[in-house]
Amino acid sequence: MITETNDLIRCFGAGDPLYERYHDEEWGVPVHGDSALLERIVLEGAQSGLAWITILRKREGYREAFAGFDPAAMAAFGDADVERLMADPGIVRNRRKIESAIVNARATVALREEGTSLDELFWSFAPEARTSAPASWEDVPASTPESVALAKALKQAGFVFVGPTTMYAAMQACGLVDDHIAGCVAAAQG
Q1: Which of 153, 179, 178, 180 is nearest to 167 (CA)?
Q2: What is the model's pTM?
Q3: Each residue of 48-95: pLDDT tens digit?
């Protein structure tokens, strides 16, 4: 827990206004819609091996570089777009992460063509709501049976860079689970 000078207690993000806004207004709030969920999956994958604040600081760059996370627009990206993205300092310039974003956009479009949506698939793995907030970060798992199952289903649908730990982070970020620690200002609001 991080206590701030204004006596607010946040389980993470204190001290950086961007991080505080993300913690207070976004993390753990339900996210719906294929574009919004694709964005979160891409950003969680991009975060792998990096600090989340790094990705938050590049988020607008990602939105610009990846056509606002419009799945159809991203699915049309080709080799020239990959090279353009590799030169873009507004995003993490990792070829595997860039290519995975395009693959995942194509998988999102394929889901639509099959008569379902990323939103339907993603939210079908929401666990039952927790009755109390975790007491500490030690009580928050790195993955759960639901995140393992979600990762497996996404991989079967053609998604990549969607392991169980990354998908649990996406589930937290998108409000499928609420892992704000007891005493956190955001936990108190729920």
Answers
A1: 153
A2: 0.93
A3: 999 999 999 999 999 999 999 999 999 999 999 999 999 999 999 999
Structural domains in the chain, sorted by start: 31-176 (1.10.340.30)
Residues 187 and 27 sit within 8 Å (Cβ to Cβ) = no
Asked about 64 being catalytic, the answer comes back as no
Distance CA(1)–CA(13), nearest Å, equals 10
Q: Does the annotation count 168 as an active-site position?
A: no
Answer yes or no: 52 catalytic. yes
CB 69 within 8 A of CB 40: no
Which residue in the list 19, 22, 27, 168 is annotated as catalytic? 22
Q: How far is CA 142 from CA 49, 118, 166, 185, in A?
A: 14, 22, 9, 22
